[in-house]
Each structure stands twice: as C-alpha cells, then as structure tokens.
Amino acid sequence: MIRLREIGDVVFTTPAVRALRSHFPHAHLTYIVEPSAAPVVLNNPRIDELLIAPRGRGISGFVADVALGRRLRAGRYDVSIDFHGGPRASLLTWLSGAPKRIGYQISGRAWMYTDRVARPRELRPRHSVENQWDLLAPLGIAAPTRDDFPVEMIADPATRAAVDTRLAAAGITRDHQLIVMHVSAGNPFRRWPLERFTAVAQALLARDARRRVIVTSGPSERDAAARVVTDAGALVCGEFSLTELRALVDRAALYIGGDSGPLHIAATSGVPVVALYGPTLPQRSEPWRAPQFLALAVDAGPLPCRPCDQRVCAPGDFRCLTWIEPENVIEAAERLLANPKKDLC
C-alpha cells in the first residue's frame, strides 16, 4: 500500500487498511508513507511493516526511489495498491513488480497498473474514504460502512501518560472541561482568521469556569497560537506531536478546527468535533466514524466558487472562510458541549 503526502489522506486510508486485514487475515501488509504522516499508522496493529520514504529532490531523490523499488521487488509482493496516484507513487507501484498493481485511471501513467479504477477530475461531494476505497474493488471487497470501518489512529500508553503529565503540570485535572482548538492549517485557503478563534475561545471560557481551552497549531504558526492564547486567556501546553495530539483529544470534551490533518486525527477518537469548512465540502472530508460520535460542520453556505481547487481565490476575499462568523462556531460548540451523546446531526 502506498499513500504519500498529506496527513489527512493517510487517515482516510485506515478504513481500507482494516478491510484488507479482515479480507486477507494472513497477508503481510506493508505501508509506504512519507515522514510527516507516518505517526498516523505507526502503531496500527493491522500493518506488519511500515516503510517511511522521505521525498528527495532531483537525481538523488530518483535514485532513492529506485532503490526502494528494488527492495519492494525483492519482497515479491502479490499486490501493490497506489492510494495516491501521483507520479512518485505510480513509479513505486510499478517498480514493485507485483503481478497485480492497482491504481487510478490517470492519463500518462495508467500503463503502470494492471488494474485501473476511474477517478473523475471534478471535485465531487463524495467522501475521500470512499474515493480511496474504490481501489479495493478489484480485490472483491464490498463498500464500507462508518460503523464497521471508521478511521483509526492508535495512541500508545506511553504517549497518553506523557500528555496526562503535561496537562497536570498546567493545572488541568479530570474535573475540567477541556476544549482543544487547532488554529492553523498547512493550506492558507483553509485558515480561519485568528481573531475569530480568539472570540470563540473568549466566549466559551466566559460561560463556564470549569472550561479550559488548549490552543494547538503547526510548528510554523506557533506565534499565531500564542497570540490567541494571550488575547483569549486560553492555555497552551507547548507543541504537540501528532501522536500527542491524538492522546490529547481523548481527554477533551470538544475539538474545534478547520479542515486539516489535525481535524482528521481528532476524528479517529470519539470526541465531539466542530469542523470549519472553507473551500472544501463536509461531504468530502467530514469525520468518518460511527454516527454516535458527533460532529457539526460550520461553513459559509452555498457559494458559486465553492468547492474550489485552492490555487486562486476567484472573488479575492476568501469569503468561504471570512463569512463564517464566530457566533456560528460558538453555537455549534455549545450544542455539543451540552449534549455530547445526543444525535444532533
């Protein structure tokens, strides 16, 4: 199995990993990912071997990929599945030499696969889990259900204990109602304005003295998170790795964030989620899990430019994000905090 690049996309393959293990209980399952997304599947008990393939540049990167391809060929795999479809993943799939190579029907690279699956180019209101699951059809695996095949990420006990220690050091106990708010996104088209996150944090904290808000962000936006903390009077416990974030949300009463990797990591838990969608559609990337685990989507409503390919903002004002008001997020958050187990969706 090959899925390069983004964290969320690797999360969306974990139902397929579960299905492959269920369908082929005695198979040796190897997964190839890039370093940034490796923590998502690092502790997955259904995977026998995890290969981490850094993305190199130029000739040295190509040579490294050829060497990895030779390693795969020496492993004599029966099946290779390209969940990605990019040039590098296509090459590795072909270099594996597997007699059955499954990938998308992509112009110029389809010849690298023995089994090709259609992938429309338009942005469809269809979940990414289902789009990637299409690649299991040549293996006779039926369509997924969210109850039986949710997204997964395993938090190991040592990481849980370390997060508990950090929370205790910050004065957070089990009696507090913990809200995790992720304020950044790797893609600027998905970043809600910081001052609006601040307004949400201030309102939630003012309504209940038991509440504590922990602000998280990507490494490049540490200063942005610090501004929200200062302005809102929220708490931040330093930087959290992906595995620490997964353990952290298990302690939380609510997660709030945009459509980015951390949101999809939060979706692998049972924590209620308020998800902010700008240029993307909830139907494509909402939490894929059993319906008793609640999630509310907040967006700007139907717009002629939404969804988009996130390369150029046609109106120029990022209205899909800027038209989302703090009051909309606060209302959704309060609904989930008041009724965490009631089906509100």
Describe this structure in words.
It is a single chain. This protein is of the alpha/beta class and 345 residues long. It has two domains: 7-139, Rossmann fold (3-Layer(aba) Sandwich), CATH 3.40.50.2000; 157-338, Rossmann fold, CATH 3.40.50.2000. Helix content is 36%, strand content 13%. The chain contains 14 helices and ten strands. It has helices spanning 7-11, 14-23, 38-41, 58-75, 87-95, 128-133, 157-169, 194-206, 222-232, 242-250, 261-266, 282-285, 319-322, 326-338, and strands at residues 30-33, 49-52, 79-81, 100-104, 115-117, 177-182, 211-216, 254-258, 273-277, 295-299. Strands 7-6-8-9-10 form a five-stranded parallel sheet. Helix 8 (194-206) links the parallel strand 6 and strand 7 (211-216).
Task: Give the SSE map.
Layout: H1 7-11, H2 14-23, E1 30-33, H3 38-41, E2 49-52, H4 58-75, E3 79-81, H5 87-95, E4 100-104, E5 115-117, H6 128-133, H7 157-169, E6 177-182, H8 194-206, E7 211-216, H9 222-232, H10 242-250, E8 254-258, H11 261-266, E9 273-277, H12 282-285, E10 295-299, H13 319-322, H14 326-338
Helix pairs in contact: 4-5, 7-10, 8-9, 8-14
Outline:
This protein is an alpha/beta fold and 345 residues long.
Features:
345 residues; Rossmann fold; 14 helices; 10 strands; 36% helix
The helix content is: 25-40%
> What is the count of DSSP helices, taking H or I runs of 4+ residues?
14
- The secondary-structure class comes to alpha/beta
N-to-C SSE string, H for helix and E for strand? HHEHEHEHEEHHEHEHHEHEHEHH
Q: What is the approximate shape?
A: globular
CATH hierarchy class name of the largest domain: Alpha Beta
Percentage of residues in DSSP E strands: 5-15%
Determine the CATH topology of the largest domain: Rossmann fold
Main sheet characteristics: 5 strands, parallel
**Low-pLDDT ranges:** none
- Average pLDDT confidence is 92
So, the CATH homologous superfamily of the largest domain?
Answer: Glycogen Phosphorylase B
Number of extended strands:
10
Q: What would you say the CATH architecture of the largest domain is?
A: 3-Layer(aba) Sandwich
Radius of gyration: 21 Å
Strand order of the largest sheet: 7-6-8-9-10
